[in-house]
Design brief:
This protein is mainly alpha-helical. The protein has one domain. Helix content is 67%, strand content 1%. The chain contains 19 helices and 2 strands. The chain has helices at 45-70, 81-96, 101-114, 125-138, 142-168, 173-184, 187-193, 198-218, 223-237, 243-260, 267-288, 291-304, 309-314, 321-329, 331-343, 349-368, 384-399, 406-431, 439-445; strands at 16-18, 21-23. Strand 1 (16-18) and strand 2 form a beta hairpin. Helix 14 (321-329) packs across helix 15 (331-343). The protein starts with 15 loop residues before the first strand and ends in a 5-residue tail after the last helix.
Length: 450
């Protein structure tokens, strides 16, 4: 058998008696036989026993993350400004039905024309539509329907994040489980699942699209992943205007692939990168009753956001504001992620997985930090998983110093970080009734400002 273990090799019988002496027989060649031919591979019981603790830990982490999202324990009990508008749009939709959606858009345009500032538009259809579907299935007050949708998609986002981390860190499933745990106990993720805000809902589709892009690059031409990728792009457009930031970041990833070699961008992938968002725009055009009303929604809303007093008070800041906000909410995770980002090398195979998330953050950050009066930590929720993947990579390097105890060291550090993040959420949202993630409110919740 060859050292590589792939197929049987040549064998020769040593000697035999012939003509009164030992003579070598002609060499006997055996046809190569693949090892997989005799019988299908059956996992050894020992391999199953090694997988069991990992699956058990994953189940425990998932159960904890789901409980934190489903159980309402935030102290803020009122309805925020955005939540009140979502409730109003759903109430209108319940009156006129899906066929009357152009009437809702027309009413918005009439109201927005008279306002000095901007309000969120009804073109965030998918979030409103899911609440409409929830009401049709289970009933309930409009705002309660949005709460239910936020919790449901908080759980779905947790599942998407776990699957994406498992594929991104396929070279070490211990790290993948660690990233999943850090995401499950993230204060930002818990907060978004506790309120009727579209940002956590949008994040589910953003992460799903990013995962599909990774798979399309690694498995060129895979129809299932191509379809998922196109659908994700379209659904993001029908959910929130931030889809533009994700789309630009995807273009950045495709450009960076030339040097970082994550995979092969096929022609179909490039075509769908353009077609997917256009399909989402086509849906919005139909819902708005035409292209002109849809253009008017953004023509009236975007400029007036620069005159909205609340946006001026909470949405401004220097380019590094997002860094400060992330450092405030999850300081240990942010510092670990920053440390890992500084040591990455494009030539190392494992580092390319970390660079995929880092390039996504950098490309979208470059746009998002330049939107005047339009910065909010809620918009950065889609960076949470890539940051926690980077953080667990740094923990893996630290744990490696523990030698044969490195698995236990990694598990202990991840558990401590998860506990600290839950403590942070308790300080922010339970001890202090935090609703809006503005810098002043965050600092007051942590008693930096009195």
């Amino acid at each position: 058998m060859q050292d590589d273990g792939k197929m049987k090799t040549e064998h020769a019988l040593p000697t035999t008696l012939e003509g009164g002496g030992l003579q070598p027989l002609p060499e006997l060649r055996l046809a190569p036989v693949p090892l997989s031919d005799p019988a299908p591979h059956i996992p050894h019981p020992a391999s199953r026993s090694r997988r069991f603790p990992t699956l058990l830990l994953a189940a425990i982490v998932a159960a904890g993350g789901i409980a934190l999202r489903l159980v309402h324990w935030a102290r803020f009990q009122g309805a925020g400004f955005d939540e009140s508008l979502y409730r109003y749009y759903l109430a209108q939709l319940l009156q006129v039905g899906l066929g009357g959606y152009p009437e809702i858009v027309d009413h918005y345009l009439a109201v927005q024309e008279k306002l000095s500032g901007s309000i969120l538009p009804p073109t965030r259809f998918l979030y409103i539509g899911c609440a409409y579907l929830w009401h049709g299935l289970f009933g309930g007050e409009p705002l309660a329907c949005f709460y239910a949708v936020s919790r449901l998609f908080g759980v779905l986002t947790l599942g998407v994040a776990g699957g994406f981390a498992r594929r991104l860190l396929a070279f070490d499933q211990r790290l993948a489980l660690g990233a999943f745990a850090l995401f499950a106990f993230s204060p930002l993720q818990i907060h978004l699942a506790q309120h009727a805000l579209a940002d956590g809902f949008f994040e589910c589709f953003a992460l799903g699209t990013l995962w599909a892009l990774w798979e399309c690059l690694r498995q060129p031409g895979h129809r299932g992943w191509l379809g998922t990728y196109a659908a994700g792009l379209a659904l993001m457009v029908t959910t929130k205007e931030n889809a533009f930031f994700v789309w630009v970041a995807i273009l950045g990833l495709l450009a960076a692939n030339h040097w970082l070699r994550w995979g092969t961008p096929t022609r179909a992938l490039l075509v769908l990168t353009a077609v997917g968002p256009l399909a989402g725009v086509a849906v919005l055009v139909n819902l708005a009753g035409g292209l002109r009303p849809l253009v008017d929604v953004y023509r009236l809303g975007v400029p007036k956001n620069l005159q909205l007093a609340y946006a001026i008070a909470t949405g401004d800041g220097p380019w590094h504001r997002y860094l400060l906000d992330l450092l405030t909410v999850s300081p240990l995770v942010f510092l670990l992620a920053a440390g890992m980002a500084l040591r990455l090398r494009a030539g190392e195979e494992r580092d390319r997985a970390y660079l995929f998330g880092l390039v996504f953050i950098a490309a979208s950050y470059a746009l998002m930090c330049n939107v005047k009066y339009g910065m909010n930590l809620r918009y950065a929720a889609m960076w949470d998983l890539p940051l926690r993947v980077l953080a667990v990579g740094q923990l893996g390097l630290l744990a490696a110093r523990a030698g044969r105890w490195q698995t236990w060291a990694l598990a202990g550090m991840v558990a401590l970080l998860c506990g600290y993040d839950v403590y942070q959420y308790h300080r922010l949202a339970v001890d202090f009734p935090l609703y809006e993630l503005a810098p002043a409110d965050l600092l007051r919740a942590l008693q930096v400002l009195k």
